[in-house]
Every structure is written in structure tokens, then in C-alpha cells.
Amino acid sequence: MRVALFVTCFNDTLFPATGRAVVTLLERLGCRVDFPPDQTCCGQMHVNTGYGGDCLPLVRRFTDVFAGYDAVVSPSGSCAALVRDHHARIAEAAGDPRLAAAVRERTPVYELSEFLVDVLGVEDVGAFFPHRVTYHPTCHSLRMLHVGDKPLRLLRAVRGIDLVELPAAEQCCGFGGTFALKNADTSLAMCADKVRHVRDTGAEVLCAGDNSCLTHLGGMLSRLRTGVRTLHLAEILAATEESPPAPAPPPRSGRRVSARGKAGRA
């Protein structure tokens, strides 16, 4: 199967290890993986801030760049949901029925866990990760893509893992893209609730299918000096005895926030 990696601009810029993990994993499962170098932003930032019409060129570019593949796979539930749920509607709203039809007929786009379970039909991907892990289901993957328990089924099949249930798992972490900037107090309160639940599990690693949410949660986990590492689902599934994920970077000095919310010098 010829698969294209839609890595997303967030991962490409800040988390290249996630994209590499997807390639490693899919190639291990027998896929031929290409990375179309002309891919750009899918337009999520435009849509989320009310400028959906301005991302019409991005819809057209995405449709052209990812033509001719058997499947497009992304390590981001939020971007996969945007592409599947909004692109055709953006083209229709702009009065371009030909593009809208092309979008509806183009190569299907899958979030990683969907592709592994629904398309390849595998749950045991040959991974080894001997750590205590808890999983946060991100909002777009849960509510828009309806991936259900597919990520958990994949994690349960990982050898050596100690997978623990996250209390109130379906609650939003408070990131929501620009929501975290425009409603910072509410976002931080939601993040604090989620972090408290993560700490209650005693997990070494917090896993999710979106690095955007992991960045939000990881910031607070780091500032509280919890010792909990955040890691994308793809990096756990790509890990083996011979090739474990890269070690977590050492904590950086600077200001920290105590459990009571008071800032101090690290």
C-alpha cells in the first residue's frame, strides 16, 4: 500500500520525531511511505479564527499534493478532522463546486490509529515500551473522528507496557488552539484538572494522538516538576527493544509554578 504522510506543520516544526516514528511504524507494517515535500498547512488556524474562506488555496493545494495515493495518514486527530470535515464545505462556500467534488473524491485521510486498526487491520504492531502509561483522548479524535478505543487497543498490545486508565479521560485538556490564548484562565483551570488526574495515575508517561494537547499539558507537568513525560502515540508504537524512543530532555532552569500556583525560581 502506497501511503502519504501528512505530518502537519506543528509536528514538522516542533516534533519531527513524531513524523519519523510514523514512517518507521508504517514501513515495519509493510507500507510504502512517501512524504510529499510540497505539503503545507491544512488551514486549521484560518478556520479556527473565522477566516475559513482564506484557506481555499490551501484546500486546493492539499487536494493536488496528496493525489494518487492509496491513503493519507496523519499523526494529528485535529488536522485530520479539519481536512475531512471542513475542506469540502470551504470549497462549496467559496462557490467552487468542482473543487468541492474533487475533495469528496480524493484519497481518504486517516488519523494514525484509524489507519492501523480499520485499514491495516492490526492492533499488535510489534512495539515494546516497558513503562507505566496513561492515555488522554484528544477532543477532535474523540468527538469529530470518533476513533473510540482504537488507540487504547493499540496500546494494550504493546509488550511491557503498564497501561493505566486516566480518570475523567474524556474531559478537554483546555488547549483548543487559540482558546488557550483568548481564555487563558479557563484553559489553565481545565489543564490543572487534567494534570491532577494524570498525577493520580502514577504514570511515567502521558500519551495522546495530538502533540498540540501534549504541549499544553506537558508545560504544566514540567513546571510542577512531576517527572511525567509526554509522548505521542506514534512514538510508543514505533518503539522496540532495539530502538526505544529518545530520552526525555533534562528540565530547563527558569521560573516554575508550585502546586498552589505560586511562581518561583527553579
Low-confidence stretches: 250-266
Radius of gyration: 19 Å
The computed structural class is alpha/beta
Name the overall outline: globular
Spatial arrangement of strands, main beta sheet: 2-1-3-4
Number of strands: 10
Rounded to the nearest angstrom, the distance between the terminal CA atoms is 50 Å
Quote the average pLDDT: 89
User: Total domains, how many?
Assistant: 2
Strand % is 5-15%
* Biggest pleated-sheet summary: 4 strands, parallel
Please write the string of helix (H) and strand (E) elements. Answer: EHHEHHEHHEHEHHEHHEHEHEE
Helix proportion: 40-55%
Number of helices: 13
Structure at a glance:
The chain is an alpha/beta fold and 266 residues long. It has helices at residues 9-14, 16-28, 44-48, 56-65, 77-93, 97-105, 112-119, 139-144, 150-156, 179-182, 184-201, 211-223, 233-238; strands at residues 2-5, 32-34, 71-74, 109-111, 132-135, 162-164, 205-208, 229-232, 255-257, 263-265.
Provide the descriptors you would attach to this structure in a database record.
disordered C terminus; 10 strands; alpha/beta; four-stranded parallel sheet; Rossmann fold; 2 domains; single chain; 13% strand; 46% helix; 266 residues; 13 helices
